[in-house]
Amino acid sequence: MAASRQQTSSNAAPDPDYDAIIIGAGMSGLYQLYRLRELGMKVRVFEAGTNIGGTWYWNRYPGARFDSESYSYGYSFSKELLAEWEWSEHFAGQPETLRYLNYVADKFDLRRDIQFKSRVVAAIYQVETRSWSITLEHGSSFTARFLITAIGPLSTPTLPRIEGRDSFEGKSFHTARWPKEPVDFAGQRVAVIGTGATGVQTIQTIAKEVGHLTVFQRTPNWCAPLHNGKIDAETQARIKDGYPQMFARCQETFACFIHTPDPRGAFEVSDEEREAFYEKLYGERGFGIWQGNFRDILTDRKANATISDFVARKIRARVKNPAVAETLIPKNHGFGTRRLPLETFYYEVYNQDNVELVDLMETPIERITPDGIKTSAKEYAFDIIIFATGFDAITGAFDRIDFRGAGGARLKDKWRNGPQTYLGLMVDGFPNMMMLMGPHTALGNIPRSIEYSVDWVTGLLRFAQDAGLTRCEATAAGVEAWTDHVKTLGVGLLSNEVDSWMTGINRNVEGKERRIVARYSGSAPAYRARCDEVAARGYDELTLA
Ligand SMILES: Cc1cc2nc3c(=O)[nH]c(=O)nc-3n(C[C@H](O)[C@H](O)[C@H](O)COP(=O)(O)OP(=O)(O)OC[C@H]3O[C@@H](n4cnc5c(N)ncnc54)[C@H](O)[C@@H]3O)c2cc1C
């Protein structure tokens, strides 16, 4: 980036080590590296793990797989890649997705600019040199003009705050820190704590292998069938031919999935039609029942009650023991107002003789013991405890880096009462820092959002390069306006009235007991239109120098 180098030389300050530093080598970091190389930039990626892949590198738990259709999840930027790669299933498992990302990294020769085992612990903006200095866990430091965070919305695992957690003498694993070697469940007494999306995938997979399985459930989640299947040769050919149309559709839908809400309201059809529509959705693949349902099920309590009631009837029909079925039916939130786990014979697991469900609302865990778990009712002995307790979502990875902007201001302080961002991409007081998949950005079918955000950031850096700019910063007014806009979008959504990682609640993390608006809940097309407008006007809403 010649222009910036000249500028710093004339200020007699040393050139930064890199034009840009990217933190994280998941889908976001890999694609950002690819794009910045095209600008001729000197880029370094620092990744905490020992290899690329992010989510798909860390989450090796049994049964980990997509709930986006595989072909709608992969990168769309390279026609050659689309032609070469073949997904084997409609919803690929983690090993396949990790293979895919390694294929991408090799195909585009990305690894040579990535430094592994390099956790960034601090990032400090230096006003004089208009550059960022990052420090790694083991002490070394590097500087760059631009800092791009690609640290993941779901990358910081949380363990439950249970007394005696470390006293257990058997094996214990968090699902997002699963060992690379296979775990043998045969004949083992296994506990799973947590019944979110990850817990559901783990439970339905290991139930076939374990000696005995005990599931500890605090909050049941509404789940719907995934209906996964192999992709045969004919379908494969159809998928490949149809890529342009499918990606075009993902650009038009509300959350970048191939599914999008039905324009009808739940009460604009007869009871019979509504029932038949729900039945159809329940029998179809993927998120259709959540993302392709009547337009008002996530905003209108009565409309929501119709689908909640439908799915509750399905659970009752699938689980033989009526008391167990009732425990599995959520009572404190409506269908789809928390992230919807997709399942494959999950409910049937509870018909197995060797599976027990423990309702923690009735009998809470008192402590973990050297032998197992003690609830208020009884003591259980286990060989293996699995913590499917999820993530410190969206802001968690940010909280674990000491970000200091101009004048030493801490990002953590600025975000004390919830994140404040400009377009979910920048923060005032933190010049030259851009965030990928951080708070307040459109997520949805995430790779579609990743590609958009990376391209937007790349456009800004190209603009800076061409104009010889060395400082790009969001304004306080811009941040206030976007943060207010994001909050307004959340008003009236049933999901914002429910405790979940989407509203910033995680009882296992200190300080996360209060709801915040961390998520952009508007439509992806509206988000992109707003960001495009800023770029088209020469980024005139930013302070540029
Ligand atoms: C089990 C699971 C299933 C999912 N399924 C889907 C799905 O079907 N569809 C969908 O759209 N999304 C899904 N997601 C969300 C998924 O996170 C995104 O799709 C996507 O992988 C995010 O990519 P990313 O690169 O932004 O973040 P990540 O993949 O999380 O990568 C972030 C990387 O940053 C690294 N990092 C973080 N902090 C630091 C630091 N301080 N220093 C150095 N490195 C750091 C991490 O080690 C990680 O490798 C799923 C998530 C999980 C956990």
Walk me through what this model shows.
The chain has 545 residues and is of the alpha/beta class. The chain has 19 helices and 20 strands. The strands form five sheets. Strands 1, 2, 3, 4, 5, 6, 17 and 18 form an eight-stranded mixed β-sheet that branches. Flavin-adenine dinucleotide (FAD) binds next to helix 2, helix 3 and helix 17.
SSE topology:
Blueprint: H1 2-10, E1 18-23, H2 27-38, E2 43-46, H3 55-58, H4 70-73, H5 79-84, H6 94-107, E3 114-115, E4 120-126, E5 131-136, E6 141-149, E7 171-174, E8 189-193, H7 197-206, E9 212-217, E10 224-225, H8 233-241, H9 243-252, H10 271-282, H11 288-291, H12 301-318, H13 322-328, E11 342-343, H14 346-349, E12 355-359, E13 365-368, E14 372-375, E15 379-381, E16 384-387, H15 396-399, E17 402-404, H16 411-414, E18 433-435, H17 446-467, E19 472-474, H18 476-490, H19 524-536, E20 542-544
Parallel strand pairs: 1-2, 1-6, 2-3, 4-17, 6-18, 7-16, 8-9, 8-16, 9-12, 10-11
Antiparallel strand pairs: 4-5, 5-6, 13-14, 14-15, 19-20
